[in-house]
């Protein structure tokens, strides 16, 4: 599924960036050498980052 239509970033691309240490949408764009265009995807990226952060916190307990 596409998260960012403007840059062609799929959910798996965003997830890989988060696993590699991205903590902000800006980090995700930077890891793919692109930048936000319309920014409709930023909310979805933030949600994915939050979900990953919560998962990592639960795994660390």
Estimate nothing, just give the exact number of structural domains: 1
> What is the string of SSEs from the N terminus onward?
EEHHH
Fraction of residues in helix = 55-70%
CATH architecture: Orthogonal Bundle
> How would you describe the oligomerization state of the chains in this entry?
single chain
Describe the fold and architecture.
The protein has a single domain (2-60), classed as Arc Repressor Mutant, subunit A (Orthogonal Bundle). The longest helix has 19 residues, at 42-60. The protein is built from three helices and two strands, in the order E-E-H-H-H. A two-stranded antiparallel sheet has the order 1-2. The protein is elongated, with a radius of gyration of 11 Å. The protein is mainly α and 61 residues long.
């Amino acid at each position: 599924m596409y998260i960012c239509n403007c840059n062609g970033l799929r959910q798996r691309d965003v997830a890989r960036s988060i696993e590699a240490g991205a903590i902000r949408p800006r980090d995700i764009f930077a890891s793919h050498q692109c930048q936000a265009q319309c920014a409709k995807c930023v909310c979805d990226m933030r949600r994915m980052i939050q979900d990953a952060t919560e998962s990592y916190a639960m795994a660390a307990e």
